[in-house]
Amino acid sequence: MNWIAITIVGYMLLAVEAVMSKYIIAGRMKSWQLYSFYVGIFSVFSLGFAPFGLKWFGVIPFLISFLSGIIFFLSLAFLFRSLLRSSTSRVYILFGATSTVFTTIFASLMLGDAFSVREIIGILFLLAGGVIISYKFYASRFFSHWRGAALAGILAAFSMVLLKYGYNHQAFVSGYVVSRGGILFAALGSLLVPQFRQSVFENIKKRKGRENIENLGGTIAAKATAGLGTLFVNYSIALGSVAVISSFVSVQYLLTFVFALVLSFYLKDIFIERYSVLNILAKTAGILAVALGTLLVIFK
Fold first, then answer.
1. What share of the chain is helix, strand, coil (3-state, %, to 5)?
2. Is 156 within 8 Å of 19 (Cβ atoms)?
3. Residues 236 and 249: beta-carbon distance below 8 Å
């Protein structure tokens, strides 16, 4: 299998994970709080990397990396909250566009990276694509949870830049393990919020043991799929052109839309997609704008 095929498979797996998460949240759990909690506590497995290089590099790198994990958990919570009630394709594409824009902005402000003309043009394409994806032309309004998806993207960008700062001042394993510890801490800490805790425990209690095991297994499967997809994409970067690989992000967005569209024929209450020509053309245009903007921003 050549690196282009590996890239496509990787992005396809990420698109599969998007619709899996939508099905689990909206079709089975019906609780973004429980799904967020499950995803957060799974970070405990990342602590298994500790024996392979976890070292102390000082208070500041530790706190920065730990804070990165906490903020990333908050990002996931807002993402899953938006995903519960809104279209999969709109949520994930707006999330991707927003995170790319603000990663560039935060990197400039916090890490001293300078904007190039190409990056500015890319940001404009990302903003345009995000607006097109978010706006329901047939209803003359933005989709209901666009603010949550955009906030999730902003938080993810902030988390990523903090993580990069942490990596700059300590070994990779240390930064990675500490940031995952932050996610675990945030997941457990979220139980201190009464409404969040009530939703988690009520959703567990009202279901039979077998159903809870199936939901937990589904969450593991979805996150494993995302992890494998990310691994494939990163491996293809090691083999081929990062510019070409980055351009294939449009495959992920397009397949997310296609998968959601197909599933909407069979699971109408979960995957809400309109089949009108206007809706399909608008989402396609938004996907292309976001893909082009992403390529312009991340290509060095």
1. 80, 0, 15
2. no
3. no
